[in-house]
Amino acid sequence: MPIKKTELHKMSDAEIAEESERLRSKLFELRQQAVTEKLENNREPGNIRRDIARLLTERRSRELKKEGA
Predict the structure, then answer these.
(1) pLDDT tens readout for residues 11-46
(2) Single pTM value for the model
């Protein structure tokens, strides 16, 4: 299930970093499953990549807000 925007705004910077690392390791595992042809849901890696992009975008927007303030 993708991360919702409201959930993302509630997360702290540390939680965003932790979730990003967790999703990257999950994406790595899914890539291994795809190579060995044990992947059940072919859309899962794409969904994980999108979630990682959402997290990175939120982190960058917070950095820009801090620089502007």
Answers:
(1) 999 999 999 999 999 999 999 999 998 888 999 999
(2) 0.90
Question: What angle do helix axes 13-35 and 44-68 make, rounded to 10 degrees?
Answer: 160
Please tell me the distance from the alpha carbon of residue 60 to that of residue 35, in angstroms, as a whole number: 32
Identify the domain containing residue 47 by its residue range.
5-68
Supply the pLDDT for residue 69: 78
Q: Give the ranges where the chain is alpha helix by DSSP (H).
A: 5-10, 13-35, 44-68
By the 8 A CB rule, do 56 and 21 touch?
no
Cα distance between the two ends of the chain: 34
